[in-house]
Each structure stands twice: as C-alpha cells, then as structure tokens.
Amino acid sequence: MTYQEKKSIVSLISAIFIFMSFCLYMYPQYPGGGLDSPETFRYWGLFVLNLTVVSIVAHIVVSIIFNILFRITTREKEPKFADELDKLIELKANRNSFFLFIIGFIIAMGSLIIDERSQMMFIILIASGFISDVVGSLSKLYYYRRGV
After folding, report:
1. Residue 81 pLDDT exceeds 80
2. Among the residues of the chain, which ranges form H helices?
3. Positive or negative CA dihedral for 43, 49, 51, 54?
4. How many CA atoms lie within 13 A of 129 on its CB side?
C-alpha cells in the first residue's frame, strides 16, 4: 500500500471520528426552546463555526501524527513531490467533494424556499460538508487503487 493510500484511509477514518465525536459533544447542548428561537440559531451558528475550527485543527494534528508514525514504522520520509498522477487524483477528488457540497448547499437553500424549518438548512449544510469530506477521501483512495 502506498503512502497516498494510507494517508487517504487515515483521512477518511479521522473525518468520520471527528464528526461523530463533535456531534456527540454538541448534542446535549441543544437548546430546549422553540425551533426558531434566538438560542437555536446561536446553537447552530456555534455548531458550524466550532465544527469548522475543530475539524481543521484535528486534521492537521492527525496528519502530523500520521507522518511521524509513517516515518517511524517504514523509515521512509513523506514524499516531497507530487507527480502528474498525484495532482490529477487530487483535482478529481476535490471536484467530487466540491460537487457534493454544492449540491448540498443548493438543497439547503431549497429547504428554505419550501418553508422547511430553518434548522433543517443547518443540518443539510453540516451533513453535506461531512459527506463531501468522506467522498473526497474515498475518491482519492479509489483513484490511487484503480488509476485515473
């Protein structure tokens, strides 16, 4: 298994673990008031912003730990260059990820048009962000295994 495949698997597992852990942490903090109360909007705003920050920091930490463990176990350094195949795979995985997030964003805005509860918009945005992250990692793994 190549370095890129291992990194994709670690990224996939960490994305799932980070998202589930954060959701389990935030769930008990859900306000008990009405659905469109200011506390509910504050909760969802904090949820999105905190998830973004926590996810970025956690992915950086996981990447550093992965590189350290990779170097200790294989006695190889992380590849310092990316060839044309690596760049093409990265672009295709980003395309798949962004496409799913944009579709989720459009569906979230559509939920406001059909008079769905406003918190549904936040749930759809959060879910589409998570799904796009997972699909990006799966796409990289798929393209490294199958080829482009």
Report:
1. no
2. 3-26, 38-74, 84-113, 118-146
3. negative
4. 15
**Please, what's the b/e burial string for 31-53 (b: 16 or more CB within 10 A of its CB; e: otherwise)?**
eeeeeeeeebeebbeebeeebee
Give the HSE-up count for residue 106: Cα atoms under 13 Å, Cβ half-sphere: 6
Residue type, 144: Y
pTM: 0.85
Tokens standing for residue 119: 């918190």
For the chain, the distance separating the N- and C-terminal CA atoms, rounded to the nearest angstrom, is 17
- Is 107 buried (19+), middle (13-18) or exposed (0-12) by CB count in 10 A? middle
Give per-residue pLDDT as tens, 90-129: 999 999 999 999 999 999 999 989 988 888 899 999 999 9
| Torsion (CA) 68, 74, 80, 83 in degrees, nearest 10 | -130
DSSP structure class, residue 41: H
Measure the CA angle with vertex 124, ends 53 and 98; round to 5°.
65
Amino acid identity, position 71: R
Dihedral sign computed on CA atoms, order 131, 137, 138, 143: positive
What is the rounded distance in angstroms from the CA atom of residue 118 to the CA atom of residue 112? Answer: 7
